Amino acid sequence: MEEGKLRELKQFIESCRSNPSLLHNPSLSFFKAYLLSLGARIPPQPKTEPGDFYETKPDPPLSAQDDLVESDIELDNADVVEPDNDPPQKMGDPSVEVTEENRNAAQLANVFVKLKKPNAAIRDADTALKINPDSAKGYKIRGMSRAMLGLWEEAASDLHVASKLDYDEELSTVLKKVEPNARKIEEHRRKYDRLRKQKQQKGDPVKTEASVKKEQETETQVQEALSALKDGQVIGIHSTGELEKKLSAASKTSRLAILYFTATWCGPCRFISPIYTSLAEKHPKVVFLKIDIDEARDVAASWNISSVPTFFFVKNGKEVDSVVGADKSTLERKIAQHAGSH
Protein backbone atom coordinates (compact mmCIF):
# COMPACT_ATOMS: atom_id res chain seq x y z
CA MET A 1 0.00 0.00 0.00
CA GLU A 2 1.25 3.48 -0.81
CA GLU A 3 2.82 5.51 2.00
CA GLY A 4 0.13 8.19 1.75
CA LYS A 5 -2.65 5.62 2.09
CA LEU A 6 -0.92 4.12 5.12
CA ARG A 7 -0.71 7.55 6.73
CA GLU A 8 -4.42 8.14 6.12
CA LEU A 9 -5.26 4.70 7.49
CA LYS A 10 -3.25 5.46 10.62
CA GLN A 11 -5.24 8.68 11.10
CA PHE A 12 -8.45 6.70 10.74
CA ILE A 13 -7.37 4.15 13.36
CA GLU A 14 -6.47 6.97 15.75
CA SER A 15 -9.93 8.49 15.24
CA CYS A 16 -11.60 5.15 15.93
CA ARG A 17 -9.53 4.77 19.08
CA SER A 18 -10.63 8.18 20.37
CA ASN A 19 -14.24 7.79 19.15
CA PRO A 20 -15.21 4.07 18.89
CA SER A 21 -18.81 5.01 17.98
CA LEU A 22 -17.53 5.60 14.43
CA LEU A 23 -17.38 1.82 14.00
CA HIS A 24 -21.17 1.57 14.32
CA ASN A 25 -21.66 3.57 11.13
CA PRO A 26 -23.31 1.25 8.55
CA SER A 27 -20.79 2.27 5.90
CA LEU A 28 -17.99 0.81 8.07
CA SER A 29 -19.75 -2.52 8.66
CA PHE A 30 -17.09 -4.34 6.59
CA PHE A 31 -14.33 -3.03 8.89
CA LYS A 32 -16.33 -3.76 12.04
CA ALA A 33 -16.96 -7.33 10.87
CA TYR A 34 -13.25 -7.77 10.23
CA LEU A 35 -12.36 -6.58 13.76
CA LEU A 36 -14.93 -8.91 15.30
CA SER A 37 -13.55 -11.83 13.30
CA LEU A 38 -10.22 -11.19 14.99
CA GLY A 39 -11.88 -11.35 18.39
CA ALA A 40 -11.89 -7.60 19.02
CA ARG A 41 -14.31 -6.15 21.59
CA ILE A 42 -16.20 -3.12 20.30
CA PRO A 43 -17.98 -0.81 22.79
CA PRO A 44 -21.79 -0.78 22.36
CA GLN A 45 -23.37 2.00 20.35
CA PRO A 46 -24.39 5.02 22.49
CA LYS A 47 -28.14 5.46 23.01
CA THR A 48 -28.00 9.05 21.87
CA GLU A 49 -25.74 10.30 19.11
CA PRO A 50 -24.66 13.82 18.25
CA GLY A 51 -26.89 15.65 15.80
CA ASP A 52 -26.41 14.67 12.21
CA PHE A 53 -23.97 16.73 10.18
CA TYR A 54 -26.81 17.60 7.82
CA GLU A 55 -29.45 18.55 10.35
CA THR A 56 -32.06 20.62 8.53
CA LYS A 57 -32.24 24.25 9.60
CA PRO A 58 -34.52 27.08 8.52
CA ASP A 59 -33.18 28.89 5.49
CA PRO A 60 -32.66 32.62 5.94
CA PRO A 61 -34.41 34.69 3.26
CA LEU A 62 -32.44 35.91 0.28
CA SER A 63 -32.12 39.67 0.20
CA ALA A 64 -34.51 41.27 -2.27
CA GLN A 65 -32.14 44.18 -2.83
CA ASP A 66 -31.96 45.04 -6.52
CA ASP A 67 -28.76 47.10 -6.41
CA LEU A 68 -26.25 46.02 -9.04
CA VAL A 69 -23.55 45.88 -6.37
CA GLU A 70 -23.83 42.22 -5.48
CA SER A 71 -24.79 41.53 -1.90
CA ASP A 72 -23.65 38.45 -0.01
CA ILE A 73 -25.94 35.43 -0.21
CA GLU A 74 -27.27 34.35 3.16
CA LEU A 75 -26.47 30.62 3.19
CA ASP A 76 -26.61 28.04 5.93
CA ASN A 77 -22.88 27.38 6.35
CA ALA A 78 -23.06 26.12 9.92
CA ASP A 79 -21.57 22.71 9.06
CA VAL A 80 -18.95 23.82 6.55
CA VAL A 81 -15.44 22.81 7.63
CA GLU A 82 -11.98 24.09 6.81
CA PRO A 83 -10.52 22.18 3.85
CA ASP A 84 -7.98 19.51 4.69
CA ASN A 85 -4.69 20.14 2.90
CA ASP A 86 -3.11 16.69 2.95
CA PRO A 87 -1.11 16.12 -0.26
CA PRO A 88 -3.07 14.31 -2.99
CA GLN A 89 -2.34 10.63 -3.27
CA LYS A 90 -1.43 8.96 -6.54
CA MET A 91 -4.52 7.37 -8.06
CA GLY A 92 -4.54 3.86 -9.41
CA ASP A 93 -5.02 2.99 -13.06
CA PRO A 94 -8.77 2.97 -13.71
CA SER A 95 -8.26 0.62 -16.68
CA VAL A 96 -7.07 -2.30 -14.52
CA GLU A 97 -9.35 -5.03 -13.32
CA VAL A 98 -11.66 -4.04 -10.47
CA THR A 99 -10.24 -5.68 -7.33
CA GLU A 100 -11.57 -5.81 -3.78
CA GLU A 101 -9.16 -3.01 -2.86
CA ASN A 102 -10.58 -0.86 -5.65
CA ARG A 103 -14.12 -1.59 -4.49
CA ASN A 104 -13.17 -0.29 -1.07
CA ALA A 105 -12.16 3.12 -2.48
CA ALA A 106 -15.68 4.43 -1.94
CA GLN A 107 -15.72 2.94 1.57
CA LEU A 108 -12.46 4.68 2.41
CA ALA A 109 -13.87 7.93 1.02
CA ASN A 110 -16.81 7.56 3.38
CA VAL A 111 -14.39 7.16 6.28
CA PHE A 112 -12.81 10.51 5.43
CA VAL A 113 -16.25 12.14 5.42
CA LYS A 114 -16.74 10.95 8.99
CA LEU A 115 -13.29 12.29 9.84
CA LYS A 116 -14.30 15.64 8.29
CA LYS A 117 -11.54 15.40 5.71
CA PRO A 118 -13.56 16.34 2.63
CA ASN A 119 -10.66 16.80 0.19
CA ALA A 120 -9.31 13.34 0.97
CA ALA A 121 -12.82 11.93 0.63
CA ILE A 122 -13.26 13.64 -2.76
CA ARG A 123 -9.99 12.15 -4.02
CA ASP A 124 -11.05 8.62 -3.08
CA ALA A 125 -14.55 9.20 -4.46
CA ASP A 126 -12.99 10.35 -7.73
CA THR A 127 -10.96 7.14 -7.76
CA ALA A 128 -14.10 5.08 -7.19
CA LEU A 129 -15.91 6.90 -10.01
CA LYS A 130 -13.01 6.38 -12.43
CA ILE A 131 -13.19 2.68 -11.69
CA ASN A 132 -16.99 2.60 -11.84
CA PRO A 133 -18.70 5.68 -13.35
CA ASP A 134 -22.06 4.35 -12.11
CA SER A 135 -21.03 4.17 -8.47
CA ALA A 136 -23.90 5.67 -6.48
CA LYS A 137 -21.74 5.63 -3.37
CA GLY A 138 -18.98 7.51 -5.19
CA TYR A 139 -21.36 10.31 -6.18
CA LYS A 140 -22.96 10.33 -2.75
CA ILE A 141 -19.67 10.62 -0.84
CA ARG A 142 -18.31 13.24 -3.22
CA GLY A 143 -21.53 15.23 -2.91
CA MET A 144 -21.42 15.10 0.89
CA SER A 145 -17.77 16.13 0.86
CA ARG A 146 -18.43 19.06 -1.45
CA ALA A 147 -21.22 20.15 0.88
CA MET A 148 -18.73 20.13 3.77
CA LEU A 149 -16.60 22.55 1.72
CA GLY A 150 -19.58 24.80 0.94
CA LEU A 151 -19.61 23.83 -2.75
CA TRP A 152 -23.40 23.70 -2.76
CA GLU A 153 -24.15 23.56 -6.49
CA GLU A 154 -21.53 20.87 -7.17
CA ALA A 155 -22.78 18.95 -4.12
CA ALA A 156 -26.39 19.09 -5.30
CA SER A 157 -25.38 17.83 -8.76
CA ASP A 158 -23.53 14.81 -7.33
CA LEU A 159 -26.28 14.00 -4.85
CA HIS A 160 -28.98 14.11 -7.52
CA VAL A 161 -27.00 11.65 -9.65
CA ALA A 162 -26.54 9.40 -6.63
CA SER A 163 -30.25 9.47 -5.82
CA LYS A 164 -31.10 8.41 -9.39
CA LEU A 165 -28.65 5.49 -9.19
CA ASP A 166 -29.51 4.26 -5.70
CA TYR A 167 -31.83 6.34 -3.52
CA ASP A 168 -31.67 6.04 0.28
CA GLU A 169 -32.89 8.01 3.31
CA GLU A 170 -29.46 9.47 4.06
CA LEU A 171 -29.41 11.04 0.59
CA SER A 172 -32.82 12.57 1.25
CA THR A 173 -31.55 14.11 4.49
CA VAL A 174 -28.43 15.50 2.86
CA LEU A 175 -30.38 16.99 -0.06
CA LYS A 176 -32.69 18.81 2.35
CA LYS A 177 -29.61 20.63 3.59
CA VAL A 178 -27.90 21.18 0.24
CA GLU A 179 -30.75 22.07 -2.13
CA PRO A 180 -31.89 25.33 -0.43
CA ASN A 181 -28.35 26.73 -0.57
CA ALA A 182 -27.82 25.61 -4.17
CA ARG A 183 -31.18 27.15 -5.13
CA LYS A 184 -30.28 30.47 -3.49
CA ILE A 185 -26.98 30.61 -5.37
CA GLU A 186 -28.73 29.92 -8.69
CA GLU A 187 -31.42 32.55 -8.00
CA HIS A 188 -28.72 35.04 -6.97
CA ARG A 189 -26.82 34.43 -10.21
CA ARG A 190 -29.94 34.81 -12.36
CA LYS A 191 -30.93 37.98 -10.53
CA TYR A 192 -27.63 39.75 -11.15
CA ASP A 193 -27.32 38.42 -14.70
CA ARG A 194 -30.72 39.99 -15.39
CA LEU A 195 -29.72 43.28 -13.75
CA ARG A 196 -26.45 43.41 -15.71
CA LYS A 197 -28.33 42.91 -18.97
CA GLN A 198 -30.74 45.68 -18.04
CA LYS A 199 -27.84 48.01 -17.24
CA GLN A 200 -26.16 47.15 -20.55
CA GLN A 201 -29.36 47.90 -22.44
CA LYS A 202 -29.76 51.22 -20.67
CA GLY A 203 -26.10 52.14 -21.08
CA ASP A 204 -23.69 53.47 -18.50
CA PRO A 205 -25.50 53.55 -15.12
CA VAL A 206 -23.30 56.36 -13.88
CA LYS A 207 -25.22 59.57 -14.56
CA THR A 208 -23.24 62.63 -15.55
CA GLU A 209 -24.46 66.15 -14.95
CA ALA A 210 -25.29 66.43 -18.66
CA SER A 211 -27.33 63.23 -18.67
CA VAL A 212 -29.25 64.31 -15.57
CA LYS A 213 -30.00 67.67 -17.21
CA LYS A 214 -31.17 65.94 -20.38
CA GLU A 215 -33.47 63.66 -18.38
CA GLN A 216 -34.94 66.69 -16.61
CA GLU A 217 -35.52 68.45 -19.93
CA THR A 218 -37.22 65.37 -21.35
CA GLU A 219 -39.44 65.09 -18.29
CA THR A 220 -40.36 68.77 -18.62
CA GLN A 221 -41.28 68.26 -22.27
CA VAL A 222 -43.46 65.28 -21.39
CA GLN A 223 -45.26 67.26 -18.69
CA GLU A 224 -45.84 70.14 -21.12
CA ALA A 225 -47.15 67.68 -23.70
CA LEU A 226 -49.53 66.17 -21.17
CA SER A 227 -50.85 69.61 -20.25
CA ALA A 228 -51.65 70.19 -23.94
CA LEU A 229 -53.74 67.02 -24.07
CA LYS A 230 -57.18 67.00 -22.48
CA ASP A 231 -57.67 63.52 -21.06
CA GLY A 232 -61.17 62.20 -21.73
CA GLN A 233 -62.15 65.10 -24.00
CA VAL A 234 -62.39 65.75 -27.73
CA ILE A 235 -59.96 68.46 -28.86
CA GLY A 236 -61.01 70.72 -31.71
CA ILE A 237 -58.36 71.44 -34.38
CA HIS A 238 -58.52 74.61 -36.48
CA SER A 239 -55.13 74.78 -38.25
CA THR A 240 -52.23 72.68 -39.47
CA GLY A 241 -49.91 74.17 -36.84
CA GLU A 242 -52.34 73.29 -34.07
CA LEU A 243 -52.63 69.71 -35.36
CA GLU A 244 -48.85 69.31 -35.51
CA LYS A 245 -48.50 70.43 -31.88
CA LYS A 246 -51.12 67.92 -30.69
CA LEU A 247 -49.61 65.06 -32.69
CA SER A 248 -46.15 65.94 -31.35
CA ALA A 249 -47.50 65.92 -27.78
CA ALA A 250 -49.12 62.54 -28.41
CA SER A 251 -45.81 61.13 -29.71
CA LYS A 252 -43.82 62.43 -26.73
CA THR A 253 -46.24 60.70 -24.37
CA SER A 254 -46.46 57.56 -26.56
CA ARG A 255 -50.21 57.94 -26.96
CA LEU A 256 -52.48 56.94 -29.80
CA ALA A 257 -54.04 59.92 -31.61
CA ILE A 258 -57.28 59.75 -33.62
CA LEU A 259 -58.11 62.38 -36.25
CA TYR A 260 -61.87 62.67 -36.86
CA PHE A 261 -62.74 64.66 -39.99
CA THR A 262 -66.35 65.89 -39.97
CA ALA A 263 -68.69 68.58 -41.41
CA THR A 264 -71.79 70.34 -40.10
CA TRP A 265 -73.83 69.31 -43.16
CA CYS A 266 -72.91 65.58 -42.80
CA GLY A 267 -75.82 63.41 -41.55
CA PRO A 268 -73.69 60.34 -40.58
CA CYS A 269 -71.35 62.72 -38.73
CA ARG A 270 -74.23 63.89 -36.52
CA PHE A 271 -74.83 60.23 -35.64
CA ILE A 272 -71.21 59.32 -34.88
CA SER A 273 -70.14 62.56 -33.09
CA PRO A 274 -71.76 61.76 -29.69
CA ILE A 275 -70.35 58.24 -29.90
CA TYR A 276 -66.89 59.71 -30.56
CA THR A 277 -67.29 61.92 -27.48
CA SER A 278 -68.28 58.94 -25.31
CA LEU A 279 -65.27 56.97 -26.61
CA ALA A 280 -63.01 59.84 -25.54
CA GLU A 281 -64.39 59.56 -22.02
CA LYS A 282 -63.91 55.78 -22.11
CA HIS A 283 -60.28 56.01 -23.30
CA PRO A 284 -58.71 59.01 -21.48
CA LYS A 285 -55.16 58.01 -22.51
CA VAL A 286 -56.04 58.25 -26.20
CA VAL A 287 -55.90 61.67 -27.91
CA PHE A 288 -59.23 62.36 -29.67
CA LEU A 289 -58.96 65.17 -32.25
CA LYS A 290 -61.83 66.65 -34.27
CA ILE A 291 -61.40 68.63 -37.50
CA ASP A 292 -64.25 70.36 -39.35
CA ILE A 293 -63.23 70.29 -43.02
CA ASP A 294 -65.02 73.58 -43.73
CA GLU A 295 -63.21 75.41 -40.90
CA ALA A 296 -59.77 73.84 -41.39
CA ARG A 297 -59.53 73.45 -45.14
CA ASP A 298 -55.71 73.37 -45.09
CA VAL A 299 -55.75 70.40 -42.71
CA ALA A 300 -58.36 68.56 -44.80
CA ALA A 301 -56.33 69.19 -47.94
CA SER A 302 -53.09 67.93 -46.40
CA TRP A 303 -54.83 64.68 -45.45
CA ASN A 304 -56.57 64.34 -48.84
CA ILE A 305 -60.05 64.10 -47.34
CA SER A 306 -62.63 63.13 -49.98
CA SER A 307 -65.49 62.01 -47.74
CA VAL A 308 -66.71 62.37 -44.16
CA PRO A 309 -66.73 61.03 -41.57
CA THR A 310 -63.16 59.75 -41.88
CA PHE A 311 -60.91 58.63 -39.00
CA PHE A 312 -57.12 58.34 -39.04
CA PHE A 313 -55.15 56.52 -36.32
CA VAL A 314 -51.67 57.96 -35.67
CA LYS A 315 -49.03 56.53 -33.33
CA ASN A 316 -45.50 57.87 -32.80
CA GLY A 317 -46.02 60.26 -35.72
CA LYS A 318 -47.06 57.54 -38.19
CA GLU A 319 -50.46 56.68 -39.62
CA VAL A 320 -51.26 53.11 -38.56
CA ASP A 321 -54.90 52.71 -39.62
CA SER A 322 -58.06 54.44 -40.86
CA VAL A 323 -61.86 54.08 -40.91
CA VAL A 324 -64.21 55.67 -43.46
CA GLY A 325 -67.87 56.02 -42.58
CA ALA A 326 -69.98 56.08 -39.41
CA ASP A 327 -69.26 52.47 -38.41
CA LYS A 328 -69.45 52.38 -34.61
CA SER A 329 -68.33 48.77 -34.10
CA THR A 330 -65.32 49.11 -36.42
CA LEU A 331 -64.30 52.35 -34.73
CA GLU A 332 -64.48 50.77 -31.27
CA ARG A 333 -62.53 47.71 -32.43
CA LYS A 334 -59.75 49.80 -34.00
CA ILE A 335 -59.40 51.95 -30.88
CA ALA A 336 -59.13 48.88 -28.66
CA GLN A 337 -56.61 47.34 -31.05
CA HIS A 338 -54.23 50.28 -31.33
CA ALA A 339 -54.64 51.77 -27.86
CA GLY A 340 -53.41 48.52 -26.35
CA SER A 341 -50.46 47.98 -28.72
CA HIS A 342 -46.90 49.23 -28.14
From TrEMBL:
What domain of life does the native source organism fall in? Answer: Eukaryota
Keyword line: Repeat, TPR repeat
Report residue spans for region: Disordered: 45-65, 189-217
Entry's Gene Ontology molecular function annotations:
Hsp70 protein binding; oxidoreductase activity, acting on a sulfur group of donors; protein dimerization activity
Which Pfam family name is an example for this entry?
Answer: HipN
Task: Show where the Thioredoxin domain sits.
Answer: 215-340
Query: Which GO cellular component terms, listed alphabetically, does the Swiss-Prot or TrEMBL entry include?
Result: histone deacetylase complex
List the CDD domains hit by this protein, alphabetically: Hip_N, TRX_family
Q: Where is the composition biased (Basic and acidic residues)?
A: 201-217
Q: Which InterPro entries match?
A: Hip_N, Thioredoxin-like_sf, Thioredoxin_CS, Thioredoxin_domain, TPR-like_helical_dom_sf
Provide the GO biological process annotations. response to stress
- Basic residues bias located where? 191-200
The record's PANTHER family line, in alphabetical order, gives:
HSC70-INTERACTING PROTEIN (PTHR45883), TPR REPEAT-CONTAINING THIOREDOXIN TDX (PTHR45883:SF7)
Q: What is this protein called?
A: Suppressor of tumorigenicity protein 13
Tell me which species this is from.
Vigna unguiculata
